[in-house]
Design brief:
This protein has 195 residues and is α/β, with parallel strands linked by helices. It contains 6 helices and 5 strands, in the order H-H-E-E-H-E-H-E-H-E-H. The structure holds zinc ion.
């Protein structure tokens, strides 16, 4: 009886499933990095991907100017005579956009995959939106006031954050090369810039 429940054996079919597929965290982080490529920010491209408890993507975002605000007229510089002439007062972070772009009623209990560890302003949004976990790849601003405040808030709110990396190794077989060619180069460049 047991053998009859295994049609592959009955048919003599020995084809096995692929082994070098992307694991879920790698996949969602790669989606975050792909969306970062939409960013027009010349110095920092960050993407975020929100995933529900069924491993379904419910929101994606990248850093950019607010809707309806002409990104040819607003400043993109990191420093200027006045902070008003830098990008900082205007840009919407990837986390904010991912939450606002959600295609579900809410993002309660979801996990956010984000390239850069979230700043304190995004930590507030993440907490208020009810997200339950953060997975990030780079923490290069770890020692800044914003990140220190962010960790304090997230810890108090009981939201764990963990580091993950994405593999850029070539796939074993050409047919399995999801991270291939331009995609791999593109991801390698943005990861190198973030780390
Ligand atoms: Zn932020």
């Amino acid at each position: 009886m047991a053998e009859q429940q295994q049609p592959d054996l009955l048919n003599g079919n020995t084809t096995k499933k692929r082994e070098d597929y992307l694991e879920w965290p790698e996949y969602f982080m790669a989606v975050a990095f792909l969306s970062a490529q939409r960013s027009k920010d010349p110095s920092s491209q960050v993407g975020a991907c929100i995933v529900n408890q069924e491993n379904k993507i419910v929101g994606i975002g990248y850093n950019g100017m607010p809707n309806g605000c002409d990104d040819d007229l607003l400043p993109w510089s990191r420093s200027a005579d006045s902070r008003l002439n830098t990008k900082y007062p205007y840009v919407c972070h990837a986390e904010l956009n991912a939450i606002m772009n959600k295609n579900s009623a809410d993002v309660k209990g979801c996990t956010m995959y984000v390239a850069l560890f979230p700043c304190n302003e995004c930590a507030k949004l993440i907490i208020q939106a009810g997200l339950k976990e953060i997975v990030y790849l780079s923490d290069k601003y770890h020692d800044t006031l914003e990140m220190t405040a962010s960790r304090r808030l997230l810890s108090m709110a009981g939201i764990p954050y963990s580091f993950t990396r994405i593999s850029l190794k070539p796939a074993k077989e050409p047919s399995g090369a999801f991270l291939c060619g331009r995609m791999r180069e593109c991801l390698a460049t943005c990861i190198a810039e973030l780390l």
